[in-house]
Amino acid sequence: MLEVQSIYKRYQKKIVLENVSLTIGQGEIVGLVGENGAGKSTLLQMLATLMKPDKGEIYWQGMAYHQQQKAIRQKIGFVPQDLAIWEHFSVEDNMRYFERLSWKRIGISACQQICQDMQLTQWKEPVSSLSGGMKRKLNLAISLIHQPELLLLDEPTVGIDMRSKQEIGRFLQQLARSQGTTIIYTSHDMNEIEQFTDRVLLIGKDRYYEELLTAKGIQVDCLS
Ligand SMILES: Nc1ncnc2c1ncn2[C@@H]1O[C@H](COP(=O)(O)OP(=O)(O)OP(=O)(O)O)[C@@H](O)[C@H]1O
């Protein structure tokens, strides 16, 4: 279980997160939505241990972030908005490279299986020749090599076509159901959020998303 207790974050004078608390259970897929600049990436970076809150505490499976950061980091997969892959290597070489650096050595067949499960089948092709959607899938596949318990995705499907979105969404659902992976992901696509998440957390002051999602019959929990 992920527990966030009353966290605060400000950049210079700008308060971004103010008294944010949330609880997410194992195997849940949660959509994090809100207007541009609401603080979604900031929150994800804190959940990924890459940034500390000014105040408040975060726990994963009862372990406090401020006390067991290294152990917690090994259980987290984080996919930032920007792609972090080697363009001139093949899909296989990317997976081999990151598998070698991984906390957990799963072997190359298991790496290939992750790609296949995501319908990323261009194993031998250079990344530079892949479509944007395939590159996003590879970025996601790399984050799964160490079999994270908590997967944090910052707009994993931005700029990609409907088909790849569907494939990624279905893959994430399968991952949560079969492995019990807890998944939090941000998106501005409310159809995708409706289709693939179990529930929605809204961040920021803008109530546009709340109205939109409530009209679709989706329950929204407001974080600020
Ligand atoms: N390192 C930083 N220094 C100063 N201000 C920052 C920094 N990072 C983010 N901000 C500001 O904090 C606010 C929240 O940014 P954040 O990237 O978390 O929002 P977001 O909800 O992810 O936005 P988007 O949907 O555009 O990705 C924004 O106003 C942003 O300009």
List of distinct ligands in this structure: adenosine-5'-triphosphate
Count of helices?
Answer: 8
Largest sheet: 6 strands, parallel
Q: What is the alpha-carbon Rg in Å? A: 17 Å
> How many distinct beta strands?
10
Strand order of the largest sheet: 6-7-8-3-9-10
Distance between the termini: 21 Å
Strand content: 15-25%
Protein name: ABC transporter ATP-binding protein
Domain ABC transporter: 2-222
Family: Belongs to the ABC transporter superfamily.
InterPro entries: AAA+_ATPase, ABC_transporter-like_ATP-bd, ABC_transporter-like_CS, ABC_transporter_ATP-binding, P-loop_NTPase
Report what the structure shows:
It is a single chain. The protein is α/β, with parallel strands linked by helices and 224 residues long. It has 8 helices and 10 strands. The strands form 2 sheets. The chain has a 6-stranded parallel sheet, with helices on both faces. The protein has a 4-stranded antiparallel sheet with strand order 2-1-4-5, covered by helices on one side. Helix 6 (162-179) links the parallel strand 7 and strand 8. Residues 11, 16, 34, 36-42 line the site of adenosine-5'-triphosphate (ATP).
